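Ticket #4471: structure export looks truncated?
Reporter: QA, pipeline team
Priority: medium

Steps to reproduce: submit the single chain below to the structure queue and open the exported record.
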Amino acid sequence: MSPWGQRLARWLPVLLIVGGLVFDISTPPSYTAAPFFSAAPLVAAPLSTLRSTTLTAVAAMAGEIWVVSYRSAALDYHESVTEIATVFVVALLALGINRIVRMSDAQLASVRDVSEAAQRAVLPTPPDRLAGLAIAARYVGARADARIGGDLYAVQDTPHGVRLIVGDVRGKGLEAVEAAVIVIGAFREAAEQEATLEAVAGRLERALQRERGRREGPDRYEGFTTAVLAEIPANGQSVLRVLNRGHPAPLMLTPDGGLCELAPASPALPLGMGEVASWPDRADETFFPAGSLLLFFTDGVTEARNLIGRFYDPSIRLRGRHFPGPGDLLDTLIEDVARHTGGAPADDMALLAVQRPLGT
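Actual output as written to the record:
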């Protein structure tokens, strides 16, 4: 829920009670304010704590009793009792609803804790520094449910330099996690053994093809993984190699506030779709100056929408900004996406940032 929505939810029960008092004072005795007082605890029940809901129910009952006393000369005894009983029964119902909602929230929170623990096991946090590079990673899960997503990242120091991958497996749940584990495992092995990024991508493609062969149903034909692989050579050269397989293009932020999108020269299909079409992979090489930051992300960032349906564009929102390090960049990005959407993201976000410090 957006901050504005949270404020409205917090004050709406109060407004209903006050509105009921004003309505009763300003209308003839034949009109009743009981619907206002009944609605107040019902509105508070799913959105507030048990204490707040109880206070709202007590305030609603007090308001109804005051109104009946104020109009006692004009109201029939049976009408008065009926109105008070109605508000009382609805207040009890609201307390029951609040209890059920809180129990459901506790169960969902427990499931989310398990999901997040599983996510951390699949995606261990990379070290802050690796081969002279500053590194930061974040995983932000969608709060719409507790399903584990298929977003992934991995960083590895190899004889060929620091190699990394950021990807997104199609789908959710255990099947997506299984595919993510396969991709990460194949990447770690291939990154050590293969001399080029192209060969690493080939190993990942074959691993996913084997995985597809053992599956049944739609996933046998529809399963795929978008991914971007990158390599920063170990010889100290200010060079970056990027191989993109259908994934959102990473961004490079330079010390002077510049920003460039590292779009592939030749677009390619995601990993696991080699049976549909196949052509040789080719990594793009670009200059990676000291002090620059690389930002890798999944489509949970670029597909985040605001209230009017406009997508989040990190290249526009981050251009001209300066960040002390990769962690600051990722934290700022997460906060900015939350402001854009007005709340939690609708999809998982896997984020990875790498900085070549000045003097390297």
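Status: closed, not a bug. The export was complete when the record was re-opened. Leaving a note from the reviewer for reference: The chain has a mean pLDDT of 85.
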